[in-house]
Amino acid sequence: MNRIAIATGDPNGIGPELVLKALAALPPARRSDGTLAVFGPAHVLHDTAAAIGLSSVLDGLPVHDAGGLPRAAHRPGQVSAEAGASAVASASAAIAAVQAGHFDAVVAAPHHETAIHQAGIAFTGYASLVERVCGLPPDSVFVLLVGGGLRIVHATLHESVAQALARLTPALVERAARAGAMACTRLGVPAPRIALFGLNPHASEGGLFGDDDARVTMPAADRLRAEGLAVDGPTGGDVLLAARAHDLYVAMFHDQGHIPIKLLAPQAASALSVGGDVLVASVAHGSAMDIAGRNLARPDALLRSLALLGWTSVAGPA
User: Fold this and answer.
1) Distance (Å, rounded) from C-alpha 5 to C-alpha 312?
2) pLDDT score recorded for residue 1
3) Low-confidence residues of the chain, pLDDT below 70?
4) How many CB atoms lie within 10 A of CB 304?
5) Residue 96 Cα distances to 100, 132, 144, angstroms
6) Gyration radius (Cα) of the chain, Å
7) 29, 65, 149, 305: least buried by Cβ within 10 Å?
8) 3-state SS, residue 107
9) 101: Cβ–Cβ under 8 A, 6 or more apart, which residues?
10) 67: left (phi over 0), alpha (psi -120 to 50) or beta
11) What is the structure's pLDDT at 279?
12) Closest Cα partner for 108 from 123, 121, 122, 126?
């Protein structure tokens, strides 16, 4: 059983509620056996637990008071710089605890990117935070979405399609594929069959739709195959997903990978930050400010993220 550090995400979103409800699905003895700990503002966790009738969930559970949120700044449903900074601080503390060897991985509740940017923090997701906390270079940690029977790793993520296309190189695609393959090994698929999505329709149709695939994805596929990886493509994503013949898909930009996962696993997919020193599993949905503080959030995706990291008793396969 892996030792998991759980970060509460944006304290004004549904993160604290999700964490408490996910913990409530575990046997009481499991919550206090030292394999789980929560990182976040302690007063937020205790106040939220009291509000939704789950105070007993915190009995015996290690809570690291990380995040530094002033009590007056805990306003469920409100986007604020204080909450954004708190989410980054609690996740950073959890990542640092894994890097120090106290835990094996992080499971993180959803953050709110606008709140984080209001705090003046450069942030494009938990993958970039792993890079920063662990002292890794940019473009070394990638997002792998898991859900609906699919695993899709993204070569680029939160940026415009134009910027992503300008930045994509064979080396970047190769790093994403390798990171995804290593994560598959940890998830129980030691020799994954990998497929690369083409950049253009039909992977550029032999040059009829541009030379982007000839410049980027085709050389990447050739180099990965030369390393001994089982790689097909590049091929149009529609063809690859219709065949469903691979263990891992490599998307070139955000929507290529997010749309099929979220179509097949709405509100239930997991997002893993892979390729770095610390594995972070999160949910592939937002902080749902519209229902924060209303006891309406469902912990399905957070439970699936725990299950991916070895807590198979709390959720079925994604």
Assistant:
1) 17
2) 54
3) 1, 311-318
4) 25
5) 6, 11, 21
6) 20
7) 29
8) strand
9) none
10) left
11) 92
12) 126
